[in-house]
């Protein structure tokens, strides 16, 4: 709200939205003003039609010879409108249930009318839909303005009965008017300061609850009304009549059993009054028995079951027993009506609970156990070519004195810190290491966590080796979103080799010449990488089989059952079958049944291909799921993955582990925990719209994502978290091609108030760059340290100021689209 008390544009627009299909009825001064404006507007339109000039095609001579039809006499003026009160509306359904003033007492409702006066009949009948909508907007804006003007008088807040009455009328028209709800909150708090009698306080609270009930009768899914009711109860100003609250819920849920606001409020009430969750679980069963299409009841059941299983309440100790009963329940619903989606979504939740371990587990790390790192592990053979030492791995970030350590969990977790992830080594590094989640959002949960060892004694005169030990004991601090803790201790060790700083390997420039991904002369293949190590940190197969035996048996029974589903063209059945197969494949990946696992993935790919044709409206979702299955299939074992891997060596340079996943129609990247060792990655000629997941590849030096569907720099934010990235090929994407690109605002930006003002904007303004146009490019290039960039073929590259932005913010950039600029 502005300082002068007038509503802002946003508030005016918000207040003008009404869920009522008929024109709202207003009372008092608002009715008279809007009716007068409407009458004035209709009279102006009548005069304009009378004075309408002849058409441009007519001439004076022609009009003079043409017989002019007789003009009809003007209609008689309307009867003068009396100043009496407008007639009462016959529809009193929304207000007739209000208690009499003697029952409710005095309070914030004072000054409100209990009827809904309507506009004069002659104005309603002649107005079309557009005119009625204009009258509605005028009424809402007028009411909001009157409230606002009464709210601020000479800088002092006022809460009069007239303003409270206006706020009630406004909320009766449009329950989504947040300004009116906030005004009533402040008014109630102000008026209660003057009351000490408990009965008077209770009367005021009850009156406010009745206002909420009226708003809910107008719109049972009003966010503002439900929030206001929760706020009233949370104030604990008076005893709560829970019988009345549950009665209101029963009435609303009878009208719409899937009103998620009502179910959310029921959970709030149950927690507020301490109702046992077992009782609420039985209530969901009753509602499902009435109508198994009640999605809200299934959803509430999943929430209650999760809490009961985590707390191990009485009767809920055995996860296998509970989920077996739930599977039987939902299968009855699915086979009764395979086209209803409520049961399918609940089945998906059951599937997720069955196919994943109960506790978060570390499934991959970099460096892997037993790895040996060095800056440039090279030696000269007889041909004077630099080749890789088979016993060590090139770590390019060592050139800058940094060793990234990456931990990858099967579920997003939070709480990693130096106290629960212990590092021991015989070389000097900062003891106050901070573990940070490698994730775009700021939720604090992430599958991937990283820290960075800064080596202080890297310039040693002789070759030395240092050992680093990483241990993660069982810790209650490392916790998943479901509240489960990491209870599987892990310990691994790796070695860092530091050589003589006068060695010529330190003088090798990897980017002396630009890297050409399409040229075979840029790199020479030297066989397959010997440093790949899968499943170094996985739990043993015996433990997996013991924990997963019931899960696998249950999923196998489900697969056999859904194969016999009569509706073969049901998209839900095909999607569920694909998910069941992938769940079995995930369990098999923790064991040793590789051949059977590949069969599951192959069949799931077929289902997703069918779904793309069967349900084109969700084509992108199916393409993403298909890409994940394909990534899983290509990286699941050494023999298959090695077909796409090689060791690449530039002339007189270091060895780099290279993976080429081109022309596979990938739309999404997954299973990056298996590629933490990759240093060159070629993902060109796919259909990638996002590169989320690549932030885990902290060893990545060169990346090629040309000829994809990247549409903005904000979708490249994962690359800003890779400290070793030096070469990036973005050519022939769609950056800047869309005039309105909503993906630009999905990530951190100055407009979302997540990024503070930085010097990069000031530097670009000094060079006459339109910061508002290139803000996403500025934020990206200030966060990366590239040596080579290829961006030709994108619309943004043709803009005059773009090269200025890149060269200003990337002082280390040497090659731009194959041209040396520094």
UniProtKB/TrEMBL annotation:
Chain intervals for the UniProt region annotation (Disordered): 1-109
GO cellular component entries: Rab-protein geranylgeranyltransferase complex
Record-level GO BP terms: prenylation
Record's keyword terms, sorted: Leucine-rich repeat, Prenyltransferase, Repeat, Transferase
Domain of life: Eukaryota
Compositionally biased intervals (Basic residues): 41-53
Pro residues bias (residue ranges): 71-80
Compositional bias per record (Low complexity), positions renumbered to this chain: 54-70
InterPro entries, sorted: Leu-rich_rpt, Leu-rich_rpt_4, LRR_dom_sf, Prenyl_trans_a
Keyword Transferase: yes
Pfam families per UniProt: LRR_4, PPTA
E.C. no: 2.5.1.60
A molecular function GO annotation: Rab geranylgeranyltransferase activity
Catalytic activity reported: geranylgeranyl diphosphate + L-cysteinyl-[protein] = S-geranylgeranyl-L-cysteinyl-[protein] + diphosphate
Family membership noted in the UniProt record: Belongs to the protein prenyltransferase subunit alpha family.
Function summary: Catalyzes the transfer of a geranyl-geranyl moiety from geranyl-geranyl pyrophosphate to cysteines occuring in specific C-terminal amino acid sequences.
Name the UniProt record assigns to this protein: Geranylgeranyl transferase type-2 subunit alpha
